[in-house]
């Protein structure tokens, strides 16, 4: 059975985790299919953006599939976490822009999955949290590393050591999500991003991600390297020409 419902919206896709009965929890099959989907869009420049969400209204993703997990040996758990880490990292490193629409609860691995995305829009009634310590474990798919990079060490420790769940408004005020909104808001964000020059958008994503934790001079040279990717593009010339002709640009990703 397919683990995702994939809907094409012109230059972007919507991926809906199709596991409402288990609150879209991360099973082995789901992570394997996520990997395949990420590889596909990373190789295909036609898909510029993905809106990732969960089926139903209750959950974006309830974290690890705890029923499946109960039958795993510690060795199997470690192997599964490794595949999750690699898949999440591939998503983060992709030229494609990922927007998480957190339509409902995002706990544990569900919040970790959203943290790999470039932007997070959260539904008014949704909640987020890295709740792992309540289960005797710690976040194992990047949460202890990505959360402090996003919101700072103090807030990350508050959230991870307490395992508390935060409501949408607090998630936005902490910087955990960028805004409260609906699926339409997330789709419209994707549409806006897709109006821009694709190579420039990817270069800007990588410049921010790669430079954010470097010393400023090193970070500025990361920006320079990413800028260089746009210099020889037809789209840069199209941007200039469209400006001169007072018309909207038509970008081709070349
Ligand atoms: N793994 C596997 N199954 C899960 C699950 C998970 N992480 N989270 C929920 N489910 C299952 C429940 O066991 C239940 O199955 P059942 O109908 O066979 O009993 C079904 O999904 C519905 O769960 P329920 O709790 O009744 O739904 P809800 O809408 O009231 O609440 C959540 C949804 C996500 C808030 C709640 O299920 C929850 O807190 N889940 C645990 C999340 C968690 O601790 N994740 C961290 C993992 S590290």
The main sheet orders its strands as 1-2-3-5-7-10
Give the tally of structural domains.
2
CATH third-tier fold name of the largest domain:
2-enoyl-CoA Hydratase, Chain A, domain 1
Percent in helix: 40-55%
Which oligomerization state do the chains in this entry correspond to? single chain
Mean pLDDT: 96
Task: Describe the overall structure.
This protein is α/β, with parallel strands linked by helices and 254 residues long. The mean pLDDT is 96. The protein has helices at 28-43, 66-70, 74-93, 109-116, 143-151, 153-162, 168-174, 183-194, 198-211, 216-231, 234-244, and strands at 4-9, 12-17, 49-54, 59-61, 97-102, 105-107, 119-122, 127-129, 166-167, 179-180. α4 crosses α5, α5 (143-151) crosses α6 and α9 packs antiparallel against α10. α1 links the parallel β2 and β3 (49-54). The radius of gyration is 19 Å and the shape is globular. The longest helix has 20 residues, at 74-93. The protein starts with a strand and ends in a 10-residue tail after the last helix. It has 11 helices and 10 strands. The relative contact order is 0.11. The protein has 2 domains: 4-193, 2-enoyl-CoA Hydratase, Chain A, domain 1 (Alpha-Beta Complex); 197-245, Orthogonal Bundle (Lyase 2-enoyl-coa Hydratase, Chain  A, domain 2), CATH 1.10.12.10. The strands form 2 sheets. A 6-stranded mixed beta sheet has the order 1-2-3-5-7-10, sandwiched between helices.
Short description:
The chain is of the alpha/beta class and 254 residues long.
């Amino acid at each position: 059975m397919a683990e995702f419902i994939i809907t094409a919206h012109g230059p972007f896709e919507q991926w809906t985790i199709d596991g409402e009965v288990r609150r879209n929890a991360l099973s082995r099959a789901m992570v394997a299919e996520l990997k395949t989907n990420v590889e596909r869009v990373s190789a295909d420049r036609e898909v510029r953006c993905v809106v990732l969400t969960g089926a139903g209204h209750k959950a974006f993703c309830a974290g690890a599939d705890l029923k499946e997990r109960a039958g795993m040996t510690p060795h199997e758990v470690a192997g599964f976490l490794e595949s999750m880490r690699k898949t999440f990292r591939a998503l983060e490193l992709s030229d494609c822009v990922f927007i998480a629409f957190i339509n409902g609860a995002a706990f544990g691995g569900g919040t970790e999955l959203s943290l790999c995305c470039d932007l997070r829009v959260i539904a008014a009634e949704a909640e987020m949290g890295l709740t792992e310590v309540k289960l005797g474990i710690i976040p194992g798919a990047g949460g202890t590393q990505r959360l402090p990079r996003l919101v700072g060490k103090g807030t990350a420790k508050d959230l991870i050591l307490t395992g508390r769940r935060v409501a949408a408004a607090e998630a936005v005020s902490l910087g955990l999500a960028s805004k409260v909104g609906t699926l339409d808001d997330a789709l419209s964000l994707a549409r806006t991003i897709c109006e821009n020059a694709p190579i420039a958008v990817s270069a800007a994503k990588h410049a921010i991600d790669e430079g954010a934790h470097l010393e400023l001079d090193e970070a500025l040279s990361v920006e320079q390297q990413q800028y260089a990717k746009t210099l020889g593009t037809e789209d840069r010339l199209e941007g200039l020409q469209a400006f001169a002709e007072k018309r909207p640009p038509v970008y081709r990703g070349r």
